[in-house]
Automatic annotation (TrEMBL):
Family, as annotated: In the C-terminal section; belongs to the NnrD/CARKD family.
Biological function: Catalyzes the epimerization of the S- and R-forms of NAD(P)HX, a damaged form of NAD(P)H that is a result of enzymatic or heat-dependent hydration. This is a prerequisite for the S-specific NAD(P)H-hydrate dehydratase to allow the repair of both epimers of NAD(P)HX.
GO molecular function, one term: metal ion binding
Name recorded for this polypeptide: Bifunctional NAD(P)H-hydrate repair enzyme
Taxonomic lineage from the root: Bacteria, Bacillati, Actinomycetota, Actinomycetes, Kitasatosporales
Organism: Streptomyces corynorhini
Co-factor remark: Binds 1 potassium ion per subunit.
GO biological process, one term: metabolite repair
Length: 500
């Protein structure tokens, strides 16, 4: 599992560790790891470090210090290193002295050296930077990209807010980021994540001093494999879980088919469908148990997924209310989210999982969509807290947040957090922008509903579903467009890939 910690946590850990080390030791550790990573990249690029042209963009803080000490190491290995100080007079003095002593020089003409550089190190700002790139940095940052050099961000691409991934104005777009001690949330959440390129973590010994509960966690194959349900000898379809899907309408029967297609591949033993799309569902999936009355009359169901393509007619509103009255886990998506009352969700005793995209999240929070997209972490946390529900926020970065324990009964999901505190938000590492295709969210709802019915806690069902869904899209796509139906069809392959 990858974890990310907040700037405050990093600074506290740094303080404790520094008290036990000689002055400057931590920065030198960071710089040594950075130089090793850069040397590896130069060898891949040119076959050598000797003679490589390296340019350092250096701001006024310790981020620039890291770049300078790493530059000194590369200069000692024969690289031609030039520094572009963006805050002349405030450049890290020890780092600059080390670089000059190793044979590096201050660039006379930044644009000339950037035009021919092989590698540019972005040491403008790290965890201390705020408010995006300043105007004086913009021309050199643009020249760095324009010159065709590989751009490596030190700790964090400058211009990205470390705690949230927000970008105000412009930020460095890196090919790779070498980060120290722990990942920062801004490296894992868009738009910051997208600026960071390939991520590399350098261990500087902060681990024992970081809080055991991180801000964010990103599951990997082994973590997801442990969560997925496996039928045992004594299983029958009821023990494996029955998921109820309430989706589709006369206008959107396809949503019903897609939600059921996800549900059939999520590990539940049976899928019940309730709604006006029964005929379309049966034509495609004869194994579905179709019911025409209200959901509460459909028979045994261990979890519901309600909302995709439902429309907002009176049947839809009544079906959502009926499902929310059931004492089993309920996933609410799409149109279902427009028919929700905050109080109804808060008062539920069984878990509730809401799965909005940014537009739906914005409507639930009463803010603009842009605000949610710029600050996904704050938005998903706010929604979870307000509704007392688990929330999966879809989009370029999918996040899953749980409310603080005690704020929603029934939705706790075995976390290592302190009593009362919300567990770490989960960030989904799989997926592809090709997933932004009509109906793919319907597949996700059915899939996550199925995992809920199979007995996973809401947070685990949501994060395992997002993981499989994103992986399935990648496997189905391999660089080409995919349809929602392809995503569903590749789910068994994604499942095998995870558990295999
Ligand atoms: N903590 C650790 O464990 C370790 C930390 N290490 C390293 O230290 C880094 C943190 O260093 P830091 O605290 O000096 O802050 P940093 O990111 O260099 O930037 C702050 C400076 O930039 C300025 N500034 C602010 N905003 C700006 C903007 N938009 N555009 C331009 N300038 C802006 C601001 O000054 P201002 O101009 O606002 O007065 C201030 O001087 C960290 O990321 C890692 O690389 C490692 O060496 C070892 C372990
Ligand atoms: N830019 C993107 N990058 C990666 N995944 C995306 C992107 N945009 C959307 N997605 C994913 O695609 C799916 C779209 O779901 P949704 O918005 O509900 O669409 P629909 O209602 O058409 O099914 C979600 O899983 C979402 O996370
Ligand atoms: K940086």
């Amino acid at each position: 599992m990858r974890t990310a910690h907040s700037v405050d946590a990093v600074r506290n850990a740094e303080r404790e560790l520094m008290a036990r080390l000689p002055e400057g030791a931590l920065m030198k550790r960071a710089a040594a790891g950075l130089a090793t990573a850069c040397a590896g990249l130069l060898k891949d690029l040119l076959g050598r470090v000797y003679g490589a042209r390296v340019v350092l963009l250096v701001g006024s803080g310790d981020n620039g210090g890291d770049a300078l000490y790493a530059g000194a190491r590369l200069a000692r290995r024969g690289a031609g290193v030039r520094v572009v100080p963006l805050a002349p007079g405030r450049t890290h003095p020890g780092g600059l002295a080390a670089l000059l002593a190793a044979g590096g020089r201050v660039a006379e003409d930044p644009f000339e050296v950037l035009a021919t550089a092989d590698l540019v190190l972005d040491g403008i700002t790290g965890i201390g930077g705020h408010g995006g790139l300043r105007p004086d940095a913009l021309p050199v940052v643009r020249a760095a990209r324009g010159g065709g050099a590989m751009v490596v961000a030190v700790d964090l691409p400058s211009g990205v807010e470390a705690d949230s991934g927000e970008v105000t104005g412009e930020a460095v777009r890196a090919d790779a980021t070498v980060t120290f001690g722990t990942y920062k949330p801004g490296l894992l959440i868009d738009p910051g994540h997208e600026r960071a390129g390939a991520l590399r973590l350098v261990d500087i010994g902060l681990g024992p001093y970081l809080p055991s509960v991180p801000e964010l966690e990103a599951l990997q194959h082994a973590d997801v494999a442990r969560l997925l349900p496996v039928p045992v000898g004594e299983s029958d379809k009821y023990r494996r879980g029955v998921v109820g899907v309430v989706a589709g309408s006369a206008r959107y029967p396809g949503a019903a088919v897609l939600a059921v297609s996800g549900a059939l591949r999520g590990g539940a033993g049976a899928v019940r469908y309730v709604g006006p799309g029964g005929e379309a569902v049966l034509a495609r999936f004869p194994e579905t148990l179709v019911h025409e009355g209200p959901p509460s009359g459909a028979g045994r169901v261990q979890a519901w997924a309600v909302g995709p393509g439902l429309g907002d007619g009176s049947w839809a509103a009544a079906a959502v209310a009926d499902v929310l009255a059931a004492d089993v886990p309920v996933l609410v998506d799409a149109d279902g989210l427009r028919l929700l009352a905050e109080r109804t969700v808060r008062e539920r005793t069984a878990p509730t999982l809401l799965t909005p995209h940014a537009g739906e999240a914005a409507a639930l929070l009463g803010v603009d969509r842009e605000e949610v997209e710029a600050g996904r972490l704050a938005a998903v946390r706010e929604l979870a807290a307000r509704y007392g529900a688990t929330v999966l926020l879809k989009g370029s970065t999918t996040l899953v947040a749980e409310p603080a324990s005690g704020s929603a009964s029934g939705s706790a999901s075995g976390s290592a957090s302190e009593p009362g505190a919300a567990p770490p938000v989960r960030v989904n590492p799989t997926g592809t922008p090709w997933l932004a295709t009509a109906g793919s969210g319907d597949v996700l709802s059915g899939l996550a509903g199925s995992l809920l019915a199979a007995g996973l806690p809401a947070r685990d069902a949501a994060s395992a579903a997002a993981y499989l869904h994103g992986l399935s899209a990648r496997l189905a796509s391999r660089g080409a467009p995919v349809a929602a139906d392809d995503v569903a069809a590749w789910l068994p392959e994604a499942w095998r890939n995870v558990v295999g």
